[in-house]
Every structure is written in C-alpha cells, then in structure tokens.
Structure of DNA helicase:
Amino acid sequence: MEDASIDRWMEFLRKYYEEDVRRLSVYYPDEMSLNVNFQDIERFDPSLAYELIENPTEILHAAEEALRKSDLSTGGEMPDAHIRVTKLPKKLPIRSIRGQHINKFIAVEGLVRTVADVRPKVRVAHFECMKCHVVNKVIQQGLIFREPRTCGEGTEDEGCKSSGKIFRFLKDKSAYIDAQRIRIQEYPENLRGGEQPQTLDIEVEEDITGMVMPGDRIIINGILRSYQRRSKTGVRSPVFEIYLEGISIEREEQEFDELKITKEDEEEINKLKNDPDIYDKIISSIAPSIFGYENIKEAMALQLFSGVAKDLPDGGRIRGDIHTLVVGDPGIAKSQLLRYAAKLAPRGIYTSGKSTTSAGLTATAVRDELGDGKWTLEAGALVLADKGLAAVDEIDKMDKKDQSALHEAMEQQTVSVAKAGIIATLKSRCALLGAANPKYGRFDRYEPISVQIEMSPTLLSRFDLIFTLTDDPDEVLDTKIAEHILKSHHAGELKARGVDSEDDLANVPQISPDLLRKYIAYARRNIFPVMTTEAQEKFKQFYVDLRSQGIGSDAPVPVTARQLEALVRLGEACARMRLSEEVTEEDASRIIKVVKDSLLQVGVDPETGRLDADWIAVGTTKTRRDRAKIIRDIVRGLIKEHGGDACPIEEVYERAESSGIERQRAEEIVEGLLRDGTFFSPKHGMIGLP
Ligand code: ADP
Ligand code: MG
C-alpha cells in the first residue's frame, strides 16, 4: 500500500511540480523544502487530498519518500528533503480544536505571542549497548526522548536482544536538527469582551525554524499531536496536552484581511461618504451609551482612521498612528470609552497596565515552560496590537521597565529586546489610547500631569493629544448624565424581558458599529490624503503663533516640532474620515481646534493663562519652579538661623508672604514638596530638609 502511495505522489510531482523539484535538487541542501499547494493535490486526486487530511503522518511520509527518490531531480538524491503543504481549505480557530483533531492535518491561524530560541534536537539518537557494544539508532519524534527497547531492534547489526538500563546515549555521534517552539494565540479582535485568548503551542523543525517573531500573524499547517503530562516526579497525568507539529507556515499579509468588505458594503460606504454630516455622524456613533465627551470621541475617531505613515528616503519612518491619553478622576467612563474604541478598531486590543502578562506593554525575555526553562521572547500588548489600536487602561500602573521601552515603542514603533542572548526588534505599529487615574485620587488642575500620574514628561510628550477630565459636580450636567444612564439601564431592563423600548433609541448609533468598522478599514486601506497648500499654510501659521507665545515670556520653548507632526497626522485622519484624498483648509481648522483644546487642558499655566507646553515637557512650570525654589531657600535659611534640622512652618509662610507668595499658594507648594520628599515634617508644625 505504501509503495502504491509513493508511486501516486511521484506521478503528482511529475505532473504539477516538475520544475520546482528540479530546481530544489540544484539548490539542495541549502534549500530543503518543496512547497506544495493543497489545492493542486485536490485537483490531482481528491481522495489523496482527503487521505492527507485524515492520515497525514503516513501520507506525508510517502510524499517525502517520493520527493527524495524522485527521478526528476538532476542533482542526485535528497535524503532530508521535505514537502511543506500549504493553503489548506479550512482554518480552524484555536478555540475549536478538539480531541477529534488529534493526528489530523489542520490549519490554525493566530498571533505569535512567544517564541523560544532555536535549539538543536536529536533526530537520530545513537545508543551503545553496554553488553555487546552494538550501536542502536532510534529515530526521535514528538516530545518524549525514546531509548531502545531491546538491543538490535531496528538496527542493521545483530544485537544481543538484551533490554533494561544497558544503553549509553552517544551524544556526539547522534544526528541533530534545529527545533523551535512557538506559542500562538487567538486574534484579539475575535474575542468577545473580557475573554482570555486561548493559546496553542507549535513545534517547528529544520528550515521553518527562526521564521517568525512575536506579533506576527500566521497560519500554521500541521499535525495535531498529543502527549501525556508528567509531574516532576514522573507521575503520569490522565490529561493529555496537545501541540501542533508544524508542517508549513504562511504569513497573513493584508492588514485588514480579516474584515471582508463586500460590494454592497462598498455601496453603503460611498453613500455615507457623500453625507455632509459624516464627520459628526461618526463621532456620535462612538460609544453612544456614554454621555458627553465629544472632544474625546472626536480624538478616538481620528485615532481609528489614523494619519499616513511615511517612509523617508534615508530609511527612516514617520508614524501615522495617533496616540491619545485620557487622564481623569475615577468613575467617569474612561474604561468604557477604551473598551469601545478597542471594539471598533478593525484590529483592537484592550488591556490594563495593571493586569498585563509578564510581557507587559512592550516585550520581554522570560524563562518559561514553553522553552523548557530556556529563554523565550514574549510579545506585550503593543506588539500584539501591531497595525491596530492598543487601548491601555490604567497605563500609569504599568511596569517600570515598560516606561523606558515605551518611548521607543511609541515613536519608532519598534520594541528592542537585548537580554540573555536574545537580541530582537519587534514591530509595534499601533495607535495607543491610554487612560490614567491621578495618583492622589482626584485630578488637580494646579499640578502638572507628570506629577499626578507617574509618567515621565518625555513619555507624555509622545502623545499627540492629552485630555484631562475632572468629576466636578454640576447640576445641569449631572442631571443629563443621570437621565442618560438611567434611560440606558431602563431600556436594558426591558430588553431582558424581551420588550423593546423607546429609551433604547438614545443609544442606537447613527452608523452601526459593524458598518463603521468597515468604513474605517476601507478608509485606511484605500485613502491616502495629501495636504493642500492652504492646509499647510494654516498649520504653519498656527505652529508659528504658538511658538511665538513663548518668546519673551518666562516659558522658554512652549511648543516643540512634535506638535507640528501631530497636526499633520490628525489632518490626514480628518480627511480620511470623509474619504477625501485631500487635507483641506477646513480639515486644518478642525484639527487646530482639537489640538488647541488638548493643549489648553494640559499646557496652560493656570496662573498666567499662557500656553505652556513646558508644563508637560519638564513637569512643572517656570512660575511654579521659581516659587518652589524661593520656599526652599527660605526653609534652608531658617534652619540655619534656628540650628538643628527643622524650622517652624509658620515662619516659612510669613517669609513667603513678604516675598510675594500668598499663604494659600505657599501651603500648596509646601504640601507638594512634602509629597515629593524635598521636605519632611519631624513633628507637627515643623518642617525640615532631609
Ligand atoms: P473609570 O474607568 O473612569 O473609572 P468606568 O468606565 O469604570 O470609569 O465607568 C464607571 C461607570 O459609570 C460605568 O458603568 C459608566 O458607564 C458610568 N458612567 C460614568 N460616566 C458616564 C457618562 N458620562 N455617560 C454614561 N455612563 C457613564
Ligand atoms: Mg477605569
């Protein structure tokens, strides 16, 4: 039966792959594999294709025998050549893999989360029998190391037929191949809210090792294998683990491939495009169940559509992705907004700075069971969200090591790892939408953001837009929010009983989330807007005006060139929202308003009313800095006069007042300096320098 099968494969190769086999034989052993399209096998012989799916171990063995012996080759035999079958008709979600798939040929798609180092693996293990010194060869397959059972079994030489612990493994004589373990997980966009992604481990060998990096989207065709888990003491568990023996790897290239846009969809999209209110319609279709926050929703919309990434002639690249940060009091729907954005994004991922895996937001080299305790490279949220949107809640709670890696991840959109011999650069081309709660519970307009949310000013300056939200009681607004929330809940209660209500209408988006996702994907795929001269002029004017506000004032340089780049990106996104190939003057005006709004929220020195990006850039404004310095000097002076290491706080306030700092301001500053450890209070009413 096997021979017949080999002949059948010979025939197939001759008919469909004659040229390729000949080519391979020339390049062999630098190249070792022949890629075979499954559809060709199906066309050649549907029953052979069926057999391959059902019984892949044997059938593939026969196919490779045929290739190795093939009389088509001109360069002689190819004893280690492989057939790598690709393009299986059906892709199986990781979630639906079951026992019935064990030992079947399946295709699985997923996002690479972790890769272990490529390591040598014994292919043919040599054992010396200690009794008769015959060398036994055992072919290794799967994950368990096999020893000879009886001497002479499967060996040309006549063995002594003894068994037991009489074999010595000949490490140096054995034959090795490259092997690598990979872990893939489900696409985040296919998960329903809050679901943990399921993972699958893949074992690849020889020329398909070292092909993928964390963050890659791939299809792996392979044979599902199972093995019995053992505890450390060797006790066997009744539960079987599964892994996929990789036969071939294909790359998922198109970024919005997953989202199919039909002819009908395209018609609807074009209808929307001609709507004069499209801009507002899109904004109002984002999280309609959340009341207010039009400015943040507008920023989210711009982020979803994204600017245009540019490749520079010198090999550099300017990101098109827009980064946004929302800082604010607890309980004002920040998390809800983030969840919504991640769901709307054609490729979105929602995660919390607090609860992310060991890989955190960027990436890490970890020792884990995937690599059998060896180092593996694991992707964090921003790598997994490559070419999409990463919504990171409580971003201020992120790991310290992420803080520094995030600079690179946001600006260069790469994540470099150099640790434990692993040197890699992963891609993180995603837009970041972060939310942060202020450290002291409530947001304080008089304190710089960087002090309130443990993020460095340089990191903050990477965000194109920053919004701050305070939860101030306001009767009119509170009433509206209350009505809105109560209506949503009321409608939800009725729905639970199976009744539709009119209240629900308030939450119905003008554009359905489904259509909006497609609209976004369509725009990002097809629309690459260019700035008109008028728009450029507007941006230039705005930028120069902003800069000039700093000249002569006490803020050294209020706005940096980063803001100009942000304007361009946002302008492009604005044009994309209308599916327009041009960034018009009107787009520019809109964007300038958005940027001004954001700058005002974070950049205005509330004491002078001036725009002061220095506030973000160095974490404190000039006036504040000066005052803090004066107060420090006063304390230093008083301590000298009094002797010891502290002085009465009342005297500090008195002197401050005579230096022109009113008491309330002075109290605030002292409080701040106590908080950051510049001062300490040895006992009530006293202040000291540590
Ligand atoms: P945060 O992350 O800012 O602490 P959440 O997103 O967890 O807050 O919101 C708390 C709850 O309050 C949510 O159920 C949210 O829907 C509701 N909520 C707060 N503000 C609004 C609003 N403006 N409109 C609708 N719901 C709101
Ligand atoms: Mg929250």
Notes: The CA atoms of residues 123 and 141 lie 7 Å apart. Residues 475-496 form the longest helix (22 residues). The chain has 22 helices and 28 strands. The pocket of adenosine-5'-diphosphate (ligand 1) is lined by residues 290-292, 330-336, 481, 484-485 (CB under 6 Å).
